[in-house]
Amino acid sequence: MSAAAAAGTWKLGDLEVNRVGYGAMRLTGNGMMGNSDGTPIDRDAAVRLLHSAFEQGVNHIDTAAFYFSPLRSANELVNRALSSWRDDVVVVTKVGPGRDPSGEWLTMARPEQLRGQVEENLRQLGRDHLDVVNLRRNGPGTASIAEQFGALAELREAGLVRHLGLSNVRPEHVAEARAIAPVVCVQNSYGLDLRGADESGLVDLCREQGIAFVPFFAVSGLRREAAAAREQDARVHAVARAHGATPAQVRLAWTLHRGPHVLAIPGTTNPAHLAENIAAGALRLTGEELALLGKPDRGAA
To answer: Annotated catalytic, 22?
Structure first.
C-alpha cells in the first residue's frame, strides 16, 4: 500500500482518490494575496516534487488558473509533471475568481464568463476535459450561486467538465447547487484554529450527503496563505511527542479524523515536508488525544 493510501480512499463522483492529496498553490512562490515576493521553486524541482508525490500515492491534485506569480503558474507545472501520469491523477481546479496579468484580483466571474475560465484551465492543463471544477465564491456574503453553478452544469453536460464542486461556501449554497447538479466536493478553510465549518454544520452536512469535504489552511491555520509558523499550541506539541510526529502531521491527522469523507490537500515545496505530510495519513490519534485537541473522533478509518 502506498503512503498516501494509509488514510483510505474516497470517491469524487466516480473518481476514487486517496484521502491525502496535494495542493499546488505554493509551487508558484505563493502568488496569492500579495505573498509572491519569495524566489519561486525551480521548474525542474517542482516537477520532481510532484513526481515524488505521485510515487508516494498522491492521486488528487488541487490547483487553479489563478494560482500564479510573476514567474510561475501552478497549472503549467502540474501539466508538465503529469506528462507520464495523466491517467493516474485526478486534477481538481476552481473557477469564479480571476486575476489580471499583473496579479490584481478581479470581481467574481459572471455566468457567461465561466466558460472562458474553464477553457483557460483546459489549455493550461493540456486536457480535453476537467476532472472536477469547484465554483469558488468571493467573500463572505450569502449571495445566490445558482446562475454561476447552472452555467457550470451546462459545461458538464457539454463534456468539458466531469464533476462539479464548491469552495468557500455555506450550507445553503450546497443545497442551492445540489438542486441544479450533483456536488462531489466542498472545499473550505478548516483546521484546529479555523472551525467555522463545524459551527455552520458544513463538515457533517457533507458527510450526511456523501460529499467530500476538503479543508484548506489545515496546517497554516490563521496564517492562511502565509507559510505555517512555529507551532504555539501546547496540546499539539504533546500529541506530536507521544507519536514521534511533527505538529503539522498532528494537525493534518486531526482533520482526517473528522470523518472518512474528509480529504487533505497540504502544499509544500520541501520534499521532506511532502513526505511528512503524506505520512500523516497513517497517524492514528486516540480518543483522549482527540478530546485534548477539542473534537471527538467521527469514525474515520
So the answer is: no
